[in-house]
Amino acid sequence: MRKDVGRFAELAGVSCDPSEPVLPWARSREEVGFEFPADYREFIDTFGPGELRGYLHVGAPWRFYGSPQAGAAFRQFLRSTTDDLGPVFRGMGQDDPALCPYPFLPEPGGLLCWGATVQGDHFFWLTSDPDPMEWPVVVWFRGQFPKTPWRKYEMRFVAFLLHALSGADRDLHDLLDWPAEPIWRRTSEEDHRE
Fold this sequence. Notes:
Order of helices and strands: HHHEEHEEEEHE
CATH topology: SMI1/KNR4-like
CATH class: Alpha Beta
């Protein structure tokens, strides 16, 4: 087990017993052309998708075992970036390039969304490095106008979650404004259909 995943479990007070892999991760390269970062895969296999402090939703490809959509989990996860967010942000960037300084997948090295807050902030990986473990986290802060709404964090996925919970980053202070919420609450696919 990775130390950062173990640290997250300790901090959140949740079980750290990895279950069966949530998804056949090895199929992602075939289905969408890339592998997911190893710390993210271990995190999802251990804790599942869920919410950090009831505020930041961490998404995951949903599995469709035994259904006609069995191969669609990775493609569906990618579609939220390529079909939904990418066109919106590119449109913003046409008016002012500072509003969208990054490419979005399927453009080479583009952003891939892995999470969002209840206030509409979005969390991405910048996929420009061939090694997914070197993908930095990039955040678009919805309420940061007129300041630049983008911030790049040179850290991996789980390290970023730990950083967000540390209270050391003023841009991420909203996570700490929800102290009554558990640090981690696992969600299911059904939670997001309602």
